[in-house]
Each structure stands twice: as structure tokens, then as C-alpha cells.
Amino acid sequence: MPSKNMLPKGQRRRTVKHEYRATRGVEEPTPLPIPVLEIDFDDDAEDHIHTFTAAPEAAGLRLDQYLAQAIPDISRARVQLLIEHGQVRVAGSPAKPKQKLHGGEQIEIEGTPHPPPLHAFPEDIPLEILHEDKHLAIINKPAGMMVHAGSGATDDSRNHGTLVNALLYHFNKLSGIGGDLRPGIVHRLDKQTSGIILVAKDDSTHRKLGDMFAQRHVEKTYIALVHGHIAKDNTTINLPIGRDLVRRNRMTTRRSADSEGVRTAVSHVKVLERLTTPYGPFTLVEVRIETGRTHQIRVHLQSLGHPVVGDTLYGAPHVIGREGNTLSLDRNFLHAARLAFTHPQSQKSMQIEAPLAPELKSFLAVISASSNTD
After folding, report:
1. Is the dihedral of CA 209, 211, 213, 218 positive or negative?
2. Among residues 225, 265, 314, 332, which one has the fewest Cβ atoms lying within 10 Å of its Cβ?
3. pLDDT digits (tens, 9 = 90+) for 284-343
């Protein structure tokens, strides 16, 4: 069978060298960025209809691809769910999953995307419990463990091995305020961040803890190792944080403070030690955060030009060190080390500390062994 790439019959002796030469070394034009739509999906507004016009830059894109790029807070899987449920119309007609856009079409989205219900289930996973009473528990979470499955997950590997799965196995009762997917979860840590996380066993404790976090009555202190030497011994970073509209898995401090979805964020950075090592300069810091925004410490330290070691998402090098003298760390060097608060039921002052994870201790020992400290 002739190749689909062959010239039509009768033209197969025609040379295409001149066409090749004309395009050799010419890069394909970079597609124009898709303008962002500031749409807030409110779970309570089931009958609300969002209406907008597809941007000219949408020409040639699939509908689901365009919407996933234009609406930063919704994944392509959730977009496809909306389309499958008949909640998206293009030019007044129900949208098709593989529909291509020309640009300029009127698009309507009705309601919010609802994945099939997902229930967390218990799994026998070891937990390091730092404190437990009848109202709450405090856990030292290892790096690599997600706190809970994502809302778009199904009953597969993404709903296994989470902190919630382990909590359901170890404790008879957890607060139900977080729903079936997040029982007991009052706050979160990134997957690759280790350390202290607070869990509520009953709804009353959960509500009171939630208010304490919102009113900044919980003191959260982290230990981080960053690349380079931070100049000042004490620095306060007061930069609002919002989603990066180009790389949607990142957050950024570079959006306007009055943009939708951008929230205030305050971090206090204290230098513990500056190290000059054969693997490069590093600074060990203690970070106390007033707010709890997504990726806050990682983004704020990057804004200083000092990314967290191992945090390649925010600019840390994949290879730590120089040629012939390198190290590796398959996680972020970020650890929730201390939590101080007043127990919401007993009113006792609580201060809980979690030692550095073994892999962080080992890494620090290696670079410290041959370092000059300041």
C-alpha cells in the first residue's frame, strides 16, 4: 500500500529539495497564549450559566483543550466531564467531546463539574503519631505521601496510599466536615513535604481548629535548605500568591494583587546556617508562615532567588553540585518542624516538634561534613 506521505501519482519524480531547503532551520511559530477566563465555579450555584466568547487564539483547538487552558482552576478531565454531562453548549448546541473551534463561538457552561462520588477507605499504612487524645491527633507525615486523593480521582492508585487511608485504619472516628474524601483533614502539606499535620477527630474540634488557622492563631514553623547564601539574617516576605497562568501546576508572586484568585501571603525567614560546600553554597533556614497558601514557602523562597533544594518545579537544579562532585535528593528539602497552638477543647498550650526526616538528615550531614559555615 502506498505511503500516505507519498506525492500523488504522476508527481512522484518531482523534486521537493527546494521546498525542504526553504524551510530548513525555520522554526514553527510559537502558538499564541490563550487568554485566561476568570470563572469561579461555585458549588452552590448548580443552575448558574457562564457565557463567554471563544478567543481567536482558540482556532484549531479542541474544545476541551481550549477550556482547560482558558480556565486555570479546572483540569482537562473535569472539562471533559462537563461535556459528557451535557453542561457545555457551543453556539447554542450541545458540545461534542472532540469538537474543534474556529474562534469567536459563544460558549455556555452550566453548573459545576461533578466527578463520580469517591469515598476514602482504610489501609494498613504505618503512621508516626506525635500526639493523640480523644479530640485530635498530630502526625509526622513522610515525604511522598499525599494527604488525600484528588477530587477528580477514581478508585484506583490515586485513591491508595494517602494519609487519609492510613488515618481511617488507625483511628475509629474522624471529623466528617471534610467530606468522604477528606475526613479529619484541617490543613495540608505538599506531597513532597514532610512533617507535622494536625487531624481532627470530631466536628466541633475541626470547626474550632479551622477558625484558629483562619485567624492565624496557629504558629507553623518549617525548616528548609535553599540554594545560595541568603544575605539577610532575617527577612519577611509579604508577596501575594496566585496560580501561574502559563504553567498551571505552579503558583507565582508575579500576578497583580487585585487579580482574581490572588491572596495575601506572609513568610518570616530566619537564617540558621550558611554553608559553603564542594556541592555549592546553601543556606539552612527556619520559616514561620502567617498564612497557608498553596506552595507558599517554596514560591516565596524562589522569589528571593533561593529555591528550595530538590524543588525542581520552582527552579532548583536537577543535579546538585558540580561535575564530578554531585548529590541527589528525590524530594524537596522542606519539613514542617514545629506547631504551636492552644488546644481547642482543653485550652492547654501545645507545642509539637517533629525531627527532620532521615533522608534530610543524611543529605545535610554529607554537605556539612566538608563545608565552611558562616
Report:
1. negative
2. 314
3. 999 999 999 999 999 999 999 999 999 999 999 998 987 778 898 999 999 999 999 999
Catalytic residue among 44, 73, 190, 233: 190
pLDDT higher than threshold 80 for residue 19: no
- Give the contacts of 350 (CB within 8 A, at least 6 positions apart): 131, 339, 340, 341, 342, 343
For the chain, domains (ranges, CATH) are 49-110 (3.10.290.10), 117-215 (3.30.2350.10), 216-374 (3.30.2350.10)
Q: What is the reported pTM? A: 0.72
How confident is residue 44, by pLDDT bands cut at 50, 70 and 90?
very low
Amino acid at 240: P
Contacts for 13 with CB less than 8 Å, ≥ 6 apart: none
**Which tops the pLDDT comparison, 42 or 144?**
144
**Quick one: how far is CA 55 from the chain centroid?**
27
| Closest C-alpha to 344, from 221, 220, 213 | 213
Better pLDDT: 28 or 192:
192
Please choose, from the candidates 177, 147, 64, 166, the residue with its C-alpha nearest in 3D space to the C-alpha of residue 113. 64
Question: Quick one: cell of 209?
Answer: 481548629
